[in-house]
Amino acid sequence: MFQFSLRQLTFLSEVARCGGIAPAARNLNVSAAAISSALDKLEAVTGLILFDRFPARGMRLTSAGADFLADADVLLTRAKALQRRAAELAKGETGTIRIGTHYAIAQQIVLPAVLTFRESYARVDIEVVEDDFSNLVAALDAGNVDALVVFNQGFGDTRFDVEIVKTVPPLVLLPASHPLANADSVDLESLSGIPYINASPAGPGPSYLDLLHAAGLEPEVPLTSQSREMVQAYVGKGLGFTLVGFQPRRNLTIEGDAVVTRPLAQEIGHFEIVLAVARAVKPPDLVTEFLDLCRTQA
Predict the structure, then answer these.
(1) Is residue 1 part of a domain?
(2) How many structural domains is the chain composed of?
(3) Alpha-carbon span 174 to 1, nearest angstrom
């Protein structure tokens, strides 16, 4: 435990600057007796003689007192910075928020929310964690992220508050040159015989391929990847089709090939985009404001 206080160090610094207790007391708006008592206690707990005292001529730091004050001034400066930091945190002007999400949602919802949020909170650090569903839920449960913006693949218990913000039907992703690319919608039967490019499952719950199987379509699956960008690149090269939740930005793959999305003519199911927070922890105001922006973007 500390044996002296910031108040005592403040008195020490001001007396040294003014050369006496009386002027320091006037500047600090405290009694001379309070300063004198504080300095006596400071000398007692440190074992140092901090001042040479000259009757009618004031006070002067000893050599040991000057060395001690140099370190004390560093501590006082840091204490003032900490006080400012606390005030900024209390006002929500600084801090860190950590959001867990998936690649597609990061591009379509989280990124626009981040850009808008930074206009009002430029000093708030934002950490976006992209991972699969199971790892993100574990991170939320452990307190390693503040909230999730994810596809709902089954939270499975009551430890989380989960809010649906958007329902996403699957879209057919095709090369722009494909004959079906100009159709208003794509019938499942017209997809038979076209290879399916599969994104490997990233958590519990049905995948897009599972939805196709449930609807009676059993496409050939020659290529599978954990990377959504790689899957879209395969499609862009004319190697097959896939299902996605969102249209790629600018309708281009990472290889620069043009692709298009078309709605399915049949209803085969959908996915939910949800916001999730731990029920046992009240989200900080900054997190709540960020999630409000995600609702707007959904």
Answers:
(1) no
(2) 3
(3) 68
pLDDT digits (tens, 9 = 90+) for 159-177: 899 999 999 999 999 999 9
For residue 202, pLDDT beyond 80 = no
Q: In angstroms, rounded to a whole number, what is the distance separating the alpha carbons of residues 162 and 225?
A: 29
**Alpha carbons 138 and 143: distance in angstroms, whole number:** 9
Cβ neighbors of 259 (< 8 A, separation 6 or more) are 173, 174, 175, 176, 232, 235, 236, 248, 251, 252, 253
Shared-domain flag, residues 114 and 32: no
Last residue of a domain, one of 73, 91, 109: 91
CATH number of 31's domain: 1.10.10.10
Contact 147, 99 (CB under 8 A): yes
Residue type, 27: N
Residue 240 pLDDT greater than 80, yes or no: yes
